[in-house]
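Dear colleague,

Thank you for sharing your sequence with our group. We've completed the structure prediction you requested, and as agreed, I am returning the results in plain text so they can be pasted directly into your records. Please verify that the sequence below matches your submission; if there's any discrepancy, let me know and we will rerun it promptly.
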Amino acid sequence: MKIIYLYEEFMRVPNNVEGQPIYIFDQDLQKNYQISDKVVEYRYFLAEQAGAIIYKGNTSRVINEINQKNPISSIISKKTFIPEYQNLFLQIQEIYVLDLLPDYFLSTDKYLQPAKRFFQYWNKIKKSLKY
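Please find the predicted structure tokens below.
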């Protein structure tokens, strides 16, 4: 089974990538900063829209549980500069085949073009969030 690991910087499955998307609410990865309920709700919405199976818990444990039920052939995600996710990816690479896509802002409509400014994206989506 090939899985696509979605996280805060990677909430859309690229068109040319196949696999089962998953999203894991992991409080340990986000313990160094506060996240509002609206952001959590928005990420849940994006994960649902991407067709992801949504889990809650420690990411490594959840991935290992998935592997026990249905062996994982590879994991696809996106490179990041967030140290917590870099460490997670190093741990995952010790056990699984991990393919990291280039560091593009994949939540935008044109995911192959790097975002120049976050506010352009935010202005586009804030009306639907009623923020």
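Summary note from our side: The radius of gyration is 15 Å.

Kind regards,
the structure core
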